Every structure is written in C-alpha cells, then in structure tokens.
Amino acid sequence: MRQEERNQPAVYMLMHNGTGVYIGYSGNLWSSMRDYLQQGKEFDAVMFTRFQTKEAAREQELDILSKCKVLPKYNRSRHH
Known about the structure:
By secondary structure, the protein is of the alpha+beta class. The protein has helices at 3-6, 29-39, 54-66, and strands spanning 10-16, 19-26, 45-50. The protein has a three-stranded antiparallel β-sheet.
C-alpha cells in the first residue's frame, strides 16, 4: 500500500479464512489495521475501497451493514 493510500478514507472488510469478520470505515486505513492487530483480532486479508471523504466512507459503511442479514463476527458488539 502506497503512503498516500494509507491516509485516505476507506471502507474495508477484514477477512479470516475467506469469511468477512468485520466491516468498517476509517480516515486512516493503515492506523486502523495496526489497531486491530494490537487488539488481537484474527484476520488474514483486507478488502477495501477508498473514498474522497470520511463522511462518504461512513455513509457507505452504514449502507453495507444495513443490508447484511447477519453481521460479521466483530460487528455484532458494535452499535450503529
């Protein structure tokens, strides 16, 4: 990931063994991934889409989560 991509807002999905375990948004994707690793969250891949603004990323994250029939493992304890 290039430096300029690390600091760009994004919606992302953490994956573990081919299954989505978390959907989120961030103003700094690199920092968020580092935090999840420090918290001990298990994931082995990240899928993401960059956005121009953090607000646009948040709106897309909420839209995706609203369409999930079952929330990913690590989203279940979050309140949106």
